[in-house]
Amino acid sequence: MLTLDLESFMFELKDGAVKHIGPSDKTATVKCYDVEGIEVREFGDERAKLVFEDEDGNEVQVALFPEEARAVARGIDDLDKESEIFE
Questions:
Q1: Total domains in the fold of the chain
Q2: Which pTM was predicted?
Q3: From residue 8, how far is each of 21, 23, 25, 26, 78 by CA, in Å?
Q4: Which end of the chain, N or C, is surrounded by fewer C-beta atoms within 10 Å?
Q5: pLDDT tens by residue, the chain, 87 residues
Q6: Rounded to an integer, what distance in angstroms lies between the CA atom of residue 34 and that of residue 56?
Q7: How far apart are CA 18 and CA 69, in angstroms?
Q8: Could you tell me if 47 and 41 are in contact, meaning their C-beta atoms sit under 8 angstroms apart?
């Protein structure tokens, strides 16, 4: 399941193209649940890309610099040691 929260966005559809209109100070939140596929691969010269896919084919991609990727790995490792969810 994928949820997408677009707060106060306005889009224009013209000649088959979608374009955001309005100020560029908007934010969005994407959540992907029930992940069935995970891929980690190189992205460009200096980043790692994490790809998560759910049962419906929805996909979320996150590109991280090495230190950010290490922080995610450390966080998962710490959670594995401290939490009951990994038992």
A1: 1
A2: 0.73
A3: 11, 10, 10, 7, 37
A4: C
A5: 878 887 777 888 888 888 888 888 878 889 999 999 999 999 999 999 999 999 999 999 999 999 999 999 999 999 999 888 887
A6: 10
A7: 32
A8: no
User: CA separation (Å) from 2 to 50, 53, 68?
Assistant: 16, 9, 24
**Amino acid (one-letter) located at 81:** K
Two tokens, residue 54: 């759910």
d(CA 38, CA 42): 14
Give dist(CA 11, CA 8) in Å, integer.
10
